[in-house]
Amino acid sequence: MNLILKIMLSAVAVLILAKVLPGVAVDNYISSLLVAAVLALLNTFLKPILVVLTLPATILTLGLFLLVINAAIILLADEFVSGFTVDGWLWALIFSVLLAVFQSILHSVLKKD
Predict the structure, then answer these.
(1) Is the separation of the CB atoms in 43 and 13 below 8 Å?
(2) CA distances from 5 to 33, 64, 75, 95, 106 (A)
(3) pLDDT, tens digit (0-9, with 9 covering 90-100), for 36-83
(4) Which of 21, 29, 35, 38 has the most beta carbons within 10 angstroms of its beta carbon?
């Protein structure tokens, strides 16, 4: 139940960011739910593999390379979900940072309850 609520809150965050950022577009709430679910799956299965494979670059950049990995996952979700578009690396990077901030805020509200 908690996982479903987190995905729904992430979908709301995706919708809000798509309205605010001009380089990101989402068609409707169903597409944002799909984006949230795909991002959850990619972050669960693909991100740990990418982090291990790029560990030297992550260490050399003091962790900043993780932002590139997050942007790549956003662009990969763009390829999987047809109602979601991101215009490039810069918008994917901005979207991933803001999405992490929104999710942190929304999930902290969820933890208090």
Answers:
(1) no
(2) 11, 30, 24, 21, 10
(3) 999 999 999 999 999 999 999 999 999 999 999 999 999 999 999 999
(4) 35
- DSSP secondary structure code for residue 64 in this structure: T
- Entry pTM: 0.91
How far is residue 29's CA from residue 6's CA, in Å, rounded to a whole number? Answer: 15
Q: With helix as H, strand as E and coil as C, how does 28-61 read?
A: CHHHHHHHHHHHHHHHHHHHHHHHHHCHHHHHHC
Is the Cβ–Cβ distance between 9 and 103 less than 8 Å?
yes
Distance CA 90, CA 65 (A): 14
Once rounded to an integer, what is the mean pLDDT over residues 79-102? 96
